[in-house]
Description:
Blueprint: E1 3-12, E2 18-23, E3 34-35, E4 38-40, H1 47-59, E5 62-75, E6 79-92, E7 102-107, H2 121-129
Parallel strand pairs: 1-6
Antiparallel strand pairs: 1-4, 2-3, 2-7, 5-6
Amino acid sequence: xxxxxxxxxAIIENEKNEILCxxxxxxxxxxxxxxxxxxKVEEGEDVYSAxxxxxxxxxNGNITATEVFNQNIHEYENFIIELxxxxxxxVEGTLVPKEHSKLIWLxxxxxxxxxxxxxxxxxxxxxxxxxx
Length: 132
Ligand SMILES: Nc1nc2c([nH]c(=O)n2[C@H]2C[C@H](O)[C@@H](COP(=O)(O)OP(=O)(O)OP(=O)(O)O)O2)c(=O)[nH]1
């Protein structure tokens, strides 16, 4: 039976209404695909704390995770992912991509131009149709 992994991902928006998009590196699982940064929820951790920890670890980012935006279960070849995308505010600091190949900010209307990790598609679609 495939393992189910619970993953949290941050939807971070800047003052120009652009969304942070992160390119997974060639050495990561699901390589060279775009995602919302985050990672696996650890045992006993709530989703908000897990996301705040992951963004600190992955890019020295200090965020406040505010509300769940989209939840999606997707079956990959080797595992099942429960992806929880959470709206988050960047509190301070510059984001340093320690694990990702690239970080970019994109307007909602341009999000569809990237090759997203398959599990992220529902969150991307919800963002594209969201009223701001
Ligand atoms: N962080 C993140 N992972 C995603 C997204 N979409 C998606 O399919 N994934 C997948 C990629 C990975 O297989 C898994 C998350 O694992 P990870 O490698 O980023 O997380 P982690 O740092 O906690 O894991 P680990 O490598 O330390 O074990 O979820 C997304 O939007 N954000």
